[in-house]
Design goal:
Largest sheet: 7 strands, mixed
Radius of gyration: 24 Å
Bound molecules: NADPH dihydro-nicotinamide-adenine-dinucleotide phosphate
Number of helices: 15
Mean pLDDT: 96
Structural class: alpha/beta
CATH class of the largest domain: Alpha Beta
CATH architecture of the largest domain: 3-Layer(aba) Sandwich
Strand order of the largest sheet: 14-17-18-13-12-19-20
Distance between the termini: 72 Å
Number of domains: 2
Strand content: 15-25%
């Protein structure tokens, strides 16, 4: 336990009773470190400290919040090269993407620093004489934040920054696959002068510490990003009347129309299907392609997939890093078998790759001849696997895009303004991309989906205040009521 990286509870670094090892998925001989696992009583300490700290912070001056959030964001941006390398080392995304993610995480803090100064409410006259009404927002209290491994710093930041900006306390449980980014993040927050316990990092497995956190009656709100099954379990916590916000998986589709720019369509498909090793909730694993350019599109897509450089995340020139874990890689290979068994045609990839280091490398795969009923087109694979579905018309493409239980993002490649406008209005997803990859969103506008992809108020941008605040309506009699 000597070199253990600790949890951050009530303003102190606290060793765990147990610990886990964090290994580099690009090279499993590289031990990044050992990380504390919080005990049940340590989680209770965090919750108790958070409740007390929130009472102070909820009454803090807006400039105090603005200054703290600005400093956190600026440090993240200034150190994005160093922290991005750490992130890539433990998660496996190529270095440039790791650096970009940390920079973006900093932008969430500077954005919400500014939002903390924009806490403007509404006023109204009462229907009764001599009474005025004001409507303002107040913090909700203690927020439990549960984040996934695929965007370990960005997801946590788009939750933690608004939580603090709007006057709440935070108990954060990151994914156990990416504890190094979490500790680095907590160290930055620790440098601020904040009430002890306002921000707590409790590392541990989802099934133990995560479950205890969501069931706790000390938690006023839970913001979760992860898989649908875990999200469903968390929604059950709403039985305590806890406010819940869930961002979950998806099965996004990119429609490629007969009037599109073919090379642009191929480049957006490659980006959306294989970027981040396909481990993005916004990935486009379904490519819905018009029959008139189907063969030309598939030929270029396969050539592009074969040309992608898969390798160690920190190696110069790597475009696709490893899959995050042995478990995830084996699930991906099972989907390749499922596609073959269902009669899809595997045109390239789909095998485990050997590289100089021992890692979880997989060759990007393209299936053609698929239909939308196949498992590979129904289930979120979270894998570098693209499935092409041939359609005969725009109408069929739109129906296929919408034929899913999920609804996070969708996209269309077309030069027709009327088709693009029709698609924008009729795609049943929370985000729509026109002539862009399905992945890649901004930080100052809402993000979320429909169906099984999301539950509760939207995240990000100004919309985040719906979740992180509660509304109070005050009636003020200005004189003797008549
Ligand atoms: P999981 O749902 O397995 O885990 C997400 C988080 O929940 C982790 O911190 C995990 O902890 C924790 N957790 C697991 N079980 C419980 C539980 N019973 N109670 C409380 N917390 C629990 O998802 P992954 O981490 O594997 O992430 C991949 C999934 O996340 C994909 O389905 C993806 O689509 C989705 N995702 C969605 C995004 C969106 O915004 N819509 C963005 C990014 C990912 P631990 O891992 O330590 O066990």
């Amino acid at each position: 336990m000597k070199n253990q990286k600790c949890n951050y509870i009530a303003g102190k670094w606290v060793a765990g009773e147990t610990e886990i090892e964090n290994l580099n998925p690009s090279d499993t001989s590289d031990l990044i470190g050992t990380y504390a696992q919080a005990s049940s009583s340590q989680l209770n300490d965090a919750l108790e400290a958070a409740e007390a700290a929130q009472r102070t912070w909820g009454n803090s001056g807006l400039e105090q919040r603005y200054n703290a959030l600005t400093a956190i964001g600026q440090e993240m941006m200034a150190r994005s090269a160093e922290l991005g390398e750490l992130l890539s080392r433990e998660e496996g995304k190529p270095r440039a993407e790791g650096v970009g993610e940390v920079y973006r995480a900093g932008q969430f803090f500077t954005y919400y620093a500014a939002e903390s100064l924009r806490q403007i409410g509404d006023t109204a006259d009462s229907v009764r004489p001599n009474i005025e009404i004001d409507v303002r927002r107040e913090p909700i209290g203690v927020v439990a934040i549960i984040s996934p491994w695929n965007f370990p710093i960005a997801t946590a930041s788009w939750k933690i920054a608004p939580a603090l900006a709007f006057g709440n306390a935070v108990v954060w449980k990151p994914a156990n696959l990416t504890p190094a980014s979490a500790v680095a993040f907590a160290e930055i927050i620790d440098r601020q002068i904040l009430p002890a316990g306002l921000f707590n990092l409790v590392m541990g497995s989802g099934g133990s510490i995560g479950q205890q956190l969501v069931e706790s009656s000390s938690v006023d709100a839970i913001s979760f990003t992860g898989s649908v099954p875990v999200g469903r379990g968390i929604a059950a916590a709403a039985q305590n009347f806890t406010k819940v916000q869930l961002e979950m998986g998806s099965k996004n589709a990119l429609a490629v129309m007969d009037d599109c720019d073919l090379d642009l369509a191929v480049s957006c498909a490659l980006n959306g299907a294989f970027g981040g090793t396909g481990q993005k909730c916004t990935a486009s694993s379904r490519l819905v392609v018009h029959e008139s350019l189907h063969d030309a599109f598939v030929e270029k897509l396969v050539a592009g997939a074969k040309a992608l450089r898969v390798g160690h995340a920190l190696e110069e020139g790597t475009q696709i890093g490893p899959v995050v874990s042995e478990e995830q890689l084996s699930a991906n290979l099972d989907y390749i078998s499922a596609g073959n068994a269902e009669g899809a045609e595997l045109l390239c990839g789909g095998d485990r790759l050997e590289r100089a280091s021992q890692g979880y490398f997989m060759e990007p795969a393209v299936f053609a001849g698929t239909n939308n009923s196949m498992r590979i087109n129904r289930e979120e694979m979270f894998a570098p696997i693209a499935c092409v579905i041939k359609v005969g018309s725009y109408e069929e493409a739109l129906d296929t895009v919408n034929d899913t239980s999920f609804g996070l993002t969708s996209g269309i490649m077309t030069k027709s303004l009327s088709r693009a406008s029709h698609f924008r209005r009729n795609a049943k997803t929370g985000c729509v991309m026109i002539n862009l990859p399905t992945a890649g969103t901004d930080y100052h506008v809402p993000f979320g989906g429909r169906g099984d992809s999301s539950y509760g108020p939207r995240e990000q941008g100004g919309y985040a205040k719906e979740f992180y605040t509660t509304v109070k309506t005050a009636y003020i009699a200005s004189g003797d009521p008549q």
